Amino acid sequence: MDELLEESDFIPVAEVEGIDTSRVQADDLAELKRLGDTLAQLNSQVIEAEERLSGVKDTRKQVAEVLIPNLMEQVGLRLVQLEDGTKIKVDEFVDARINNANIAFDWLRETNNESIIKNQISVSLGRGDDARAQEIIELLKENDVEADLKITVHNQTLKAFCRDALDNPELAESLPREAFGIYQGKRAKITQ
Known about the structure:
The protein is 50% helix and 3% strand. The protein is mainly alpha-helical.
C-alpha cells in the first residue's frame, strides 16, 4: 500500500478496487484536508448566518407589528413624517391561512361563499402517455370543463438526462445548453 495513503486522517483509498493512487502526493492530501475543513467551516457559518437572519426577521416583525403600532396608537397618530422625509404609517392588514380545510370549506359553503373555492384536477400519467393526456384534456373540454395540460420534466430526471447527454458525443454536440439552462461546474458537499 502507498505510504501516502496510510496517514491516520485519510481513508486508505488504495484499498478500493480500481483507484490509481500513483499521482497522489502527501501535499495534495494535506491540501484536500485543509480545503475540506474550510468547506465545513463555511457550511457552519452559513447555518449561523441563516439563524441570525431569522432572528432579525423576528425582531423586524415585533417592531413593525407591535412596537410602532402601539406607540403610534398611544400618541394618536397614524402617519408620521420624519425630518429626513421618512414616513411611518400604520395600516391595518389581514393575513390568512387555512389550517383545517374541512371546517373552513364547510363554512364557506354554508354561508354561500363557495365561489372563492377553486378546484384543480391533477392526474399523473406515466412517461410516454402524451396522447392519453391530450385525450383526457379534450374529453374535459367537450364537457365544458376548463382544463389545462401542464407539460413538465421532473427536475431530477432533467439533470440525469443532461448529464448523460453531455457524456454522449452525438447528443452533446447538438444539445441546446441555453434552452436547458445547463450550468457545468464542480461542487463539494460535506455531510456531518
